[in-house]
Request: fold
Amino acid sequence: MATCLKFNKTIAQACRNSTPGIVDFWIANFADVTTVAYDASETQIIGITGTTVSGSTSGFFYKVSVNKESSGFVDNSEISIPDGRASFTPTVTIKIPGMDSDTREIFKSLAQATVAVIFKTTSGEYFIAGVENGLDMSAGTLSTGVSRTDFKGLEITLTGFESEPVISIASALIADITVA
Reply:
């Protein structure tokens, strides 16, 4: 019988400084991410390489800026004790205001693409979702809204299916892999 990892950490009482929310997103075509290197404990990505359609080996993640308190991330788990398996469903929700041609192109492109997504939390941490199998658009709406207080723009949901939960990515990597 295999020996599985056992819970072996003490968790102190939580501080009340865990501010929710996402500041920025970076999106890459999943197929453009070619290698991923993990630290020794496999708790953080410390190296990532890729190429763009033009053959560039830097700048293969594209930034999507969002307004405050508009977008988020959740990683749901599905555990099957009888089947002896665990899986994770990372879900990224992004709201992009406006209905210009660039926003329409993002909507159209994400409807067809499988992507990997890096996001920066309001506390300055970076995480990557879809590193194993990618994320696909599972819902999307481009709308004008009705009343003056409604949202006008693009709302998308990207969903994946992974065997591991979302993982942090070293902030030092961001400058090398993102489009300036």
